[in-house]
Each structure stands twice: as C-alpha cells, then as structure tokens.
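Narrative of activities, Objective 1.

The group set out to show that a structural description can be obtained from nothing but a protein's sequence at a throughput compatible with the screening campaign. Below is one input-output pair from the validation batch, recorded exactly as produced.
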Amino acid sequence: MSAWFNNQYPGSATVSWASSGVILPIRNFFDFDLDIYTATSRSGPECPTNIYNITQYIENAITDKLTPADKTFVWDLFGSEGIDNGDFMFYIADTFTLGVQYGGRRELCDIFTSIAGNDMKLQLPVLKQYADRHSVTLNQYDRVALRNTTVNGYDNMRQWTWQYCTEFGWFQMANKEHPMRSTLINETYWVPYCQSVFGAENVGEPAIAYYVTKFGGLDITGKNIVYANAVEDPW
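Output recorded for this entry:
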C-alpha cells in the first residue's frame, strides 16, 4: 500500500517504506511455496523433507488413503472433522509458512528436524502445539467460519481473504518441483473457496489485470520507494 500510494499520489509522499511490499498481483503463486522449500533447506535437507512428510501423512489420512484410525486421530487432534479438506490443508501449510515468514525458520526447523523419524502420532501433537503457540487457528481458514460477519478488531482474516479473492490473487499452491504444501491446494481450489465464503454472485476470478494496470505491476513509477524485503520472506 505504501508503494502504491507513492505511485498514485506522487506529490503527497516524499519517501515510501514498502516492507514486504508485494507489487505484482498474480493468480497462481507457485513461487511462494518454492521459497518455503528454499528457506527451510538452509537448515539442512531434513527440515523441508520432514515438513513434506508430515503434510503428506495428514493429506493421506483425511482423504482415506490410510486407515480409518489415522483419519480419526487427525480429526480428534486438530478438531477438524467436518471442515473442508482443502481448508484444513491450507491451515497446515500456513502453520509452517508463518514460521518462515516471520523470521522463525531456525526455530521451526530445529523443532521438526529433532522429531523426524518418530511415529506421526508423536509428531503431530508437536505440530498442533506449534500452531497454537503461534496463534494459527482453524477458524482463520475454514470457509464456514469465514462467513461470519461479526466485527472482531483482533481478527482481519475475512477482510484479507476478500482482498486476495477479488483483487490480487496471490493464490498460494504447491510448487511443482519441490511441493511443501498439499496438492489439494491447487489451481481449482481457490475460486470455489472464495465463492463459498462470499457468495458466487460476489466473487469470480480476481481482477488481476485491472490492478496491474492501475498500480503498474513491476513497472511501478513511484520514486524514492524503499523495498525492505528479507531474503526468507516468501512474499
């Protein structure tokens, strides 16, 4: 917003500080997932491998590729029974993502590398504790919960969902070369997800071309914009 304000109102800003400034709307954001792989690899190959293994176990359990006991274990641990499988895997992906995005990659990888090789019934409670400690909750991703229009000054997830659904895209999905998130989060997942939250009559494809034209995309013309982008920030 800082960079775009500078671009739109050049006479009103002397300098703009664009921290983690994403200026290019894009629909299929495969590189986001790739950056999670690249960042966690800095802690050694065991870290991204174990994140992938945990993710695959959960996906296989909830899609009936493992035993009914595995599915029940996941549902009971996370309280996820009845939640759309893609929404649940979105929550799982963001649990790992936020660890990297906010400078906690070393802590994240230390934890999950240390438990690699253990039975998943020992690893998943650690994941649940990590999510809870970092305030990653299922209601932030569950399409049914996001329909709630009650004003909550401590939760802006519905507003953020509206923004990316209608304007910017940035649909994060499994990278094809080094997937770190579930393949349930794919090209066909996002628009139905957005429509389920806000209504099909209100949401279609995000207006990416319009916003690239409006703000300039990578050809932004604002001056004196400082882009403070950390090397492990997937945005």
